[in-house]
Amino acid sequence: MKRNAVVILICITLILAPGSSVANPGGNGDGDRDYSCGGSCHGDPSLSMPSDATIEITLGNEAFSGQAVAVHVTIEDFSTPSQIIGIFLLGSLNGNSDTPEDHGWHLIQDPNGGSSNYIETKASSSGSVTATWVLLSPENSGSHVLYAEIHHGSYAGEKAFSGVSEPFEVNVQDVPEGLPGLADDWVAPSFRVSGDNSPLSISTRNSTDISVEWMLDGEWNPNNAELVCKEDSQDVCNVWEVSIPATIGEANILYRVTTYNGTFSIEQPWLKMGTAPPPFEGEVWSARAHSFAFALLIISFLVTLQARLYPPNQRDDMDQTQIVTSSEMIRSEENPGWLWNPDTQEWVEDPDFEGGN
Amino acid sequence: MMVGAATFHTAMAEIVVGSMVLATLCAIGCSISRILPSSEINNESLMITMDRASLAGSVLALIFLPIAILSGNLAADGQAESALLYNKFVYSGLALGFWSAFVIGRIRMGPGLWDERPLAILQSTTAGFAFLMTSMASSIGGKLVRGESLFDVFPFWLPTETAAILPLWAAVSLLILGITSSALVFRFTLPKIARIE
């Protein structure tokens, strides 16, 4: 009776141990996502509660149509057990087709170095985080709206916290004739392989010259990078190769492009480039051979050990028939009834011998 | 309706892990049963049950392990693109080796092996290592698919994030060495080991 109670208690404990959550408390990873459809089930009001966080959007520089602009999203006064927070940068609150790309913006870089409108990041211990997206403004000048939505875990457990900013109006101005900037189709690279010092290719438009400053993440004094124009044109040059030093480990490098054309001198937002580990060089056939080699070596070692630990008395009492049938014994005409064992170099009785009859 | 290689691999791995847990617990139970004095609970019937359960579990694991490895190969799409995946291959091979040795020992020596303390300890230790290696391979599967594993709660564990990569020629040489040593070992131990009565 007591034993049954213990078994039932263990079973109940094991069932309850994993918890009842079917959500993704570790997040779904960065990506281009609408807030409601496909991106997050937290858009469903029955699965979320309003977050206490304050969400603020600011611009890093003036927005000209088709030009790069930095959008800072600052979130404060929130608490979450895992410190993980998911942040969406949105062009509307429609629920679908609401990414900035759907509203004419073009993402150059997200705060994690990729080019997604949704990112996951960790908050500081004080419960605040600032994330910066770099976007190309829409080609249509005038008023455009951006939103930031967040979701994060709760100590209460069952539901996620969700919050949205006030609409942030961006007044996109017409571009003066010949204003230099980054090319529409250029996407800033997220990573370089550790130790790679190959030049970085940057595409611009309407630029007669550019300068590039760089510094390691956390430093304050930028350095000027060497650069080369890769176009033959006399007036403008829109393809550049910039020498930025190689990084190793987990270092991030920040760089800023300034584009020039006549009297224009436009400082673009700071961009970030991470360091990726070198590509893995293992081959699948090597892994397979390695795997089966280990299997066979382990078998060999353990079977040898079994033979070594096999009790000696059993070895002596062993039925000789088995030895005779399983090894190559030599039958001798001169010694009837006996077999020569070349392995042990001794004579053994022939179990098949029938007394010479 | 077709099932993806990754789904099939997961199902096979679950069968292997389930039967392996049974086999390991029963093998360790057999050793403990022989060390502890006989009692109402620790009787011959329990010993026979655990011995047969460990044999059945390990044979089942050994049958499904190659299927799990092959389906894992297909799921990996013929690539060992990360240290985790490379280590999954290696740990699977180690698990296969330990399970094979466990089953070979039990079948060749019979249930009488549990009466010989050194052999009983060797056999249960083999089962323990087989459990460890299979768990490592499964844990890496969890890391690859879900980004986390039950073993993350341990402060230290066998290496999975870094791999000792062998060039193809070295891996093939090691495989030839393995084949040769297996052939020699079976050639010389075959007449020496029989069922312990």
Explain this structure to me?
The complex is a heterodimer of chains A (357) and B (197). By secondary structure, chain A is α+β, with helices and mostly antiparallel strands. Helices cover 15% and strands 34% of the residues of chain A. In chain A, the strands form 5 sheets. In chain A, strands 1, 4, 6, 8, 9 and 10 form a 6-stranded mixed beta sheet that branches. In chain A, strands 12, 14, 15, 18, 19 and 20 form a 6-stranded mixed beta sheet that branches. In chain A, strands 2-3-7-5 form a 4-stranded antiparallel beta sheet, with no helix packed on it. Chain A has helices spanning 2-16, 284-309, 312-317, 320-326; strands at 48-50, 54-59, 68-76, 84-90, 106-109, 118-122, 129-136, 142-152, 160-164, 168-172, 181-182, 191-193, 200-205, 209-216, 223-224, 226-229, 239-243, 253-261, 264-267, 271-276, 330-331, 338-341, 346-349. Chain A has 4 domains: 24-175, Sandwich (Immunoglobulin-like); 178-281, Immunoglobulin-like (Sandwich); 284-309; 318-357, no CATH class. Chain A has 4 helices and 23 strands. Chain B is mainly α. Helix content of chain B is 72%, strand content 0%. Chain B contains 5 helices and no strands. Chain B has helices spanning 5-35, 44-75, 83-109, 117-146, 168-189. In chain B, α1 runs antiparallel to α2, α1 packs antiparallel against α4 and α2 packs antiparallel against α3. The longest helix of chain B has 32 residues, at 44-75. The termini of chain B are far apart. The mean pLDDT of chain B is 84. At the A-B interface, α2 and α4 of A face α3, α4 and α5 of B.
